[in-house]
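User: Predict structure, ligand magnesium ion.
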Amino acid sequence: MSGNRTFTMIKPDAVENGVSGAILKQIQEAGFKIIALKQTKLSLEQASKFYFIHRERPFYADLCAFMSSGPIFPAILEKENAVEDFRKLIGATNPANADAGTIRKNFAESIDKNAIHGSDSDENAVIESNFFFSELERF
Ligand code: ATP
Ligand code: MG
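Assistant: Predicted complex:
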């Protein structure tokens, strides 16, 4: 059975471009409730830990450098079928391949600066949410 929560981050490119508010608006209008949200900035070490699953990929070093390059907005979101529905809402990893109307089509520049993260499984949604948020930060 699929869970009702997922984890997201608005990435440094989108925060820098001033579109965080527009992205959050699209997320809420798609029916996701914001359970937790904050602005923070990862150190290179923290980004490397978050993306450890990708350590063998050729883009790992660039990805960690980018994700620690500026502030981000991590968030926990709630909706029925959250993980799958949110992946649909954000669109393909490469915005050039993302469907019209998706967040990445609307706001992302390139495959490495792709505006937003979405968990790929219920299990990872829990792990990623716990990386950023304590119980006291969830409502
Ligand atoms: P995310 O995990 O950020 O939601 P995703 O699940 O669509 O993205 P992953 O395969 O998990 O894609 O890759 C994680 C991130 O690594 C991507 O969002 C992207 O920023 C970067 N990335 C993935 N593939 C490439 C690539 N071929 N070249 C450069 N960066 C890449
Ligand atoms: Mg992923």
